[in-house]
């Protein structure tokens, strides 16, 4: 008898799940951070690694017990970036055992992808900037050398800042600054240089650099950093998305494996 393939869910600490490709082309789904507590409306960030970066077939629900009855409410989904979405709900979460249910739409109906404990997820109130509608204009790439007319600036008024040597936090990053980068630098080495200044892990720093500089990576693949491409500093909004070392490491590894396989 022909047996239908099923997805293998690997759950670690109730916070993240890696999914073997079976029905949906989903490599990873996890709760990045919880931005609410008991007695408040659901608000959380979700990590997604999906083929072609298309998570439109995924559905998210809260499931909780209310007066002895199990109830499920669908959550609103807003993209933050290619690998992160914001989930929000209109119902108050009162059950400390509440769960997040993730399903994926298939031609023969919805298929259960994951069930995660909501309050096992890390609590973080760091904000994240939601993705904006794409525009046709692309920011210009400037030279790494400062203009001779004024130290610390270029001819197009873009400031050159050595963030690694300044006492700069993620909330004080100058506008239009660029990272110090040698042609021989790897993404890991650059992230190692800046992670302390940005108050994040090396994996969070790599993800932030990648998100802020996708055109600096060949074919927009995280393991193919171009040697001669300058790198812009990630904004505080981007850095705020990467504040959990365990989750960021898992997401980086999944993205790296996905990009290397294609």
Share of β-strand residues: 25-35%
Main sheet makeup? 6 strands, antiparallel
- In angstroms, what separates the terminal alpha carbons? 33 Å
What is the helix fraction of residues, given as a range?
Answer: 10-25%
Q: Going across the biggest sheet, name each strand in turn.
A: 1-2-3-4-8-7
> Tell me, what is the CATH class of the largest domain?
Mainly Beta
- Rg over C-alpha atoms, rounded to the nearest angstrom: 20 Å
Tally of extended strands? 10
The CATH architecture assignment of the largest domain turns out to be Sandwich
Describe the protein.
With 262 residues, this protein is of the alpha+beta class. The chain folds into two domains: 9-120, Sandwich (Immunoglobulin-like), CATH 2.60.40; 163-261, no CATH class. The protein contains four helices and ten strands. The protein has helices at 187-198, 202-212, 236-239, 245-261, and strands spanning 9-12, 16-19, 26-34, 40-50, 58-66, 69-74, 76-81, 84-93, 99-106, 109-117. The strands form two sheets. A six-stranded antiparallel β-sheet has the order 1-2-3-4-8-7, covered by helices on one side. Strands 6-5-9-10 form a four-stranded antiparallel β-sheet, with no helix packed on it. α1 packs across α2 (202-212). The longest helix is centred in the last third of the chain and has 17 residues, at 245-261. Mean pLDDT is 75; it is low at 1-24 and 131-168.
């Amino acid at each position: 008898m022909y047996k239908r393939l099923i997805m293998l869910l690997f759950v670690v600490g109730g916070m993240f799940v890696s999914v073997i490709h079976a029905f949906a082309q989903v490599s990873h789904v996890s709760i990045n951070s919880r931005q609410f507590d008991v007695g408040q409306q659901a608000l959380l960030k979700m990590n997604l690694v999906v083929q072609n970066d298309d998570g439109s077939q995924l559905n998210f629900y809260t499931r909780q017990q209310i007066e002895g009855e199990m109830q499920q409410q669908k959550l609103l989904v807003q993209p933050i970036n290619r690998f992160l979405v914001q989930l929000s709900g209109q119902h108050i979460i009162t059950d400390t055992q509440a769960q997040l249910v993730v399903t994926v739409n298939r031609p023969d109906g919805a298929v259960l992808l994951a069930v995660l404990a909501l309050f096992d997820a890390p609590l973080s109130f760091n904000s994240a900037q939601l993705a904006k509608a794409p525009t046709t204009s692309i920011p210009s790439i400037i030279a790494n050398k400062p203009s001779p007319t004024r130290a610390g600036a270029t001819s197009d008024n873009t400031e050159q800042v050595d963030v690694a040597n300044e006492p700069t936090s993620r909330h004080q990053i100058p506008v239009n600054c660029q990272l110090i980068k040698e042609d021989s630098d790897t993404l890991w080495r650059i992230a190692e240089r800046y992670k302390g200044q940005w108050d994040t892990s090396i994996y969070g720093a790599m993800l932030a650099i990648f998100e802020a500089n996708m055109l600096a990576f060949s074919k927009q693949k995280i393991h193919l950093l171009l040697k001669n491409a300058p790198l812009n500093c990630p904004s505080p909004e981007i850095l705020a998305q990467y504040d959990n070392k365990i989750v960021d490491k898992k997401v980086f590894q999944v993205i790296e494996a996905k990009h290397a396989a294609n």
